[in-house]
Amino acid sequence: MYEKNGKQYFIVDSHLHMWSAGPDNWVRGQEKYAKGWIECFHAYQSLAPKETHWPIEKFMSYTHEDFVRDVFQDGGVDHGIFQSTYLKEWYANGFNTAEQNHRLLERYPDKLIVNGRWDPREGEAGLKQLEEDAKRYNLRGVKLYTAEWRNGSRGWSLKDEQCKPFFEKCKELGIRNIHVHKGPTIWPLDRDAFDVADVDQAATDNGELNFIIEHVGLPRIEDFCYIATQEPNVYAGLSVVVGGHMHAKPHFFAKMMGELLFWVGEDKMLFGSDYGIWEPRWQIDGLLDWSFPQTEEFADYPPVTEATRRKILGLNAARLYDIEVPAECQLGASTPARASA
Fold it and tell me: Which residues of the chain, if any, have pLDDT below 70?
């Protein structure tokens, strides 16, 4: 349980990875892409406080012990959600697969959820695999990567006709949470394949599903905000928003959070650390201490309250994933942090 200033907080980190990106996993003939991808990820880590930076060797292949220490022990995360990303064009065994993530879930079944994935370009074989994965991993969500390369194709759209059977299969299988990467690109993927323009149609046509837009469409955050305010089932995934900006660009971070709070609202914003790009501890500490600068520029944004922080850091994700929240960490709880000790 996360404790700060005499209060307990329930933390759900909705964006975690356990990847394998070392040279032993690079597809022969695709080494420049596999190497370039992980080096681009590593460059993003420089936006965090210097004391949290890792050498590239550790970044490529961190361990289960690293994860447990950084996320659960030091990070204070109560529940984490793995977002699987395969990238098998470049990584022979996949970059960050449900199978890899499940190995940690087996050790911590009460603290982790594994999300799967699907790619509409896989057709019937993909639908069959989704069924198998749903049964094996008890899927409650999937992560979609619309810019992923496959057999010469450099991306796809949520509006594609071939997506419809997959959305229907998710409903049939009880997979309610659709996480979609719509944010900064990573070399060598194409930025335009992450455009948020396809989100509103998919959300309107599939009102039974929740669309969590990871990285809030950056750099197209204004487009995202206007979509999310009209679509009740569209949520803001704050990974990259926090890790990439709170420390390195605090003024821009405040502007983004203001727009998100104004248009999307505190009930539809989910914290995600994006581990292992960034460790969760400094991000959680920062959010609990953060408020808008006291200047006229920020005067028209909603206030950041205790309820705001609790919702963003855990309660919103807990609601979407039916995670039980202790009574002392729910809204309106005033129990001192160590009252039960």
Answer: 333-341
d(CA 230, CA 220): 16
Distance in angstroms (rounded) separating the CA atoms of residues 321 and 113: 9
Torsion of CA 193, 274, 35, 85, to 10 degrees: -60
Nearest to 75 by CA among 252, 271, 238: 271
- Which helix (H) or strand (E) segment holds residue 309: the answer is helix 306-310
User: What is residue 304's predicted lDDT score, i.e. its pLDDT?
Assistant: 96
CA 117, CA 3: separation in Å to the nearest integer?
Answer: 34
* Contact (CB, 8 A) for 317 and 12: yes
Residue-by-residue DSSP string for 52-82: G---HHHHHS--HHHHIIIIIITT--SEEEE
User: Is the distance from CB of 280 to CB of 17 less than 8 angstroms?
Assistant: no
Q: Which CATH superfamily is domain 10-327 in?
A: Metal-dependent hydrolases (3.20.20.140)
Specify the pLDDT at position 330. 87
Nearest to 16 by CA among 267, 241, 253, 277: 277
Token code pair at residue 269? 């914003």
Per DSSP, the residues of 173-203 read: HT--EEEEE-S---TTS-GGGG-GGGHHHHH
Compute the radius of gyration of the chain from its Cα atoms: 19
Distance (Å, rounded) from C-alpha 112 to C-alpha 323? 10
Distance from CA of residue 222 to its chain's centroid? 19
Distances (CA, A) of 326 to 43, 75, 109, 340: 38, 18, 17, 12
CA gap 203, 92 in Å, rounded: 33
Question: What's the CA gap between 16 and 70, in Å, rounded?
Answer: 11
Q: Give the Cα separation of 269 and 31 in Å (integer).
A: 37
The pTM of the full predicted model, rounded to 2 decimals, is 0.94
